[in-house]
Write a structure and sequence with these properties.
alpha/beta, Rossmann fold, 2 domains, 35% helix
């Protein structure tokens, strides 16, 4: 996908000639976009993947929980710290940023701080997940000078964490994309397969035959094969109008959003922070229908642009029992075709450039 670059953004934080160390997971292409912004500012960036072998790390994590072994990633941490120190630039790093750090240990952070950073270097931690979902439950962040989280509930309950929602990249910046794209769909949604999403997508499809829907879930073939044994009822007679065994590229996802009047975003029902898709709809000025009730707590929430659905699990139970799917009818043209309510100054506060300014400020 062609990488767009906002050349008009006025950076507030000067990173020119600064050496920056980043440890974070590979998360689609977002780590590349973060690194590209820093390089555009003139920084020298070194990125280390927190989980270079994702499937292996998931297995190790499960084994660690099963056998109650808290040190199952000890070897990886020692090798990572040694590699960072061996490869550090002359003089060390000016900034050390960890995003999520789910398997990074306190010893690794302290070793890097003592051996790879310049005197007076700044350390930053960002929780790109809820504390409850991470091994360290947010405690790792307290080793850093500055800490922030995307989760409004965690920020409220932990006053030493700043609330910093996610961002939209330049690929989803309304000022950089074609303003005359055709609306092929009323609602679009492209995401990973989870049973709850599949269940709701089928309900939305049943309830909205009059609307143009593009609802797609990627189910990895390896996961599908596993589900045939562990949950055969779930994957029997899959609706292949919804399910795809081929992954969607970032371009596919972006195009689906751009060519729709609104985006349907179904977050994990325990998620408290706003999804990346929420921020991207803000960036490209698209309406959103979501089940994330926390959206209403943010300054850019506007009922003309966003609708929050609640109690979908209960509604799905009732619909499947009665055959009445009216609770899943999506808003029609009266809402869809109503002009998007714009606030350009507010929208710009959530670009990737503003996000990094806030993180490094």
């Amino acid at each position: 996908m062609r990488t767009l670059q906002n050349t008009e953004f006025e950076y507030e934080v000067d990173l020119k000639l600064k050496n920056i160390l980043i440890i974070m997971p590979n998360f689609y292409s977002y780590q590349t976009k973060i690194r590209d912004d820093m390089i555009a500012r003139g920084a020298n960036v070194m990125f280390y993947d927190e989980e270079p072998e994702r499937s292996k790390f998931l297995i190790l994590q499960r084994l660690g929980k099963l056998f109650k072994k808290s040190n199952i990633f000890e070897k990886f941490n020692k090798e990572l710290a040694s590699r960072i120190i061996a490869e550090m630039p002359a003089g060390g790093y000016d900034y050390f940023l960890v995003i999520r750090g789910n398997i990074i240990t306190e010893e690794t952070v302290n070793t890097i701080n003592a051996n790879a950073l310049k005197e007076g270097a700044k350390t930053i931690y960002y929780a790109w997940d809820s504390f409850e979902n991470m091994n360290h439950k947010g405690e790792l962040g307290r080793l850093f000078d500055h800490r922030a989280t995307f989760d409004s509930v965690d920020a409220k309950n932990h006053s030493d964490y700043e609330l910093l929602p996610l961002f939209y990249s330049d690929d989803f910046d309304a000022t950089l994309v074609d303003k005359d794209v055709e609306n092929k769909y009323d609602y679009a949604s492209v995401s990973a397969f989870f049973p709850f999403r599949y269940r709701y997508f089928k309900a939305f499809k049943e309830a909205n035959p009059d609307k143009k829907l593009f609802l797609k879930l990627y189910l990895a073939p390896s996961v599908y094969k596993g589900k045939k044994f562990t949950d055969p009822k779930l994957v029997k007679n899959l609706d292949m109008d919804i399910v795809s065994f081929e992954p969607f590229s970032p371009q596919d996802i972006r195009d689906a959003c751009l060519h729709s009047k609104a985006v349907l975003d179904l977050a994990n029902e325990t998620q408290q922070g706003l999804t990346m898709r929420t921020m991207e709809t803000l960036g490209i000025k698209r309406k959103i229908v979501t089940n994330n009730v926390y959206l209403k707590d943010y300054e850019f929430y506007n009922s003309d642009n966003a609708i929050v659905l609640e109690d979908l699990a209960k509604k799905a139970d009732e619909a499947e029992a009665s055959g009445d799917y009216s609770a899943f009818v999506l808003p029609d043209s009266a809402w869809l075709d109503k002009p998007y309510v714009e606030n350009e100054d507010l929208r710009k506060r959530y670009s990737i450039h503003a996000w990094l300014d806030n993180l490094f400020r």
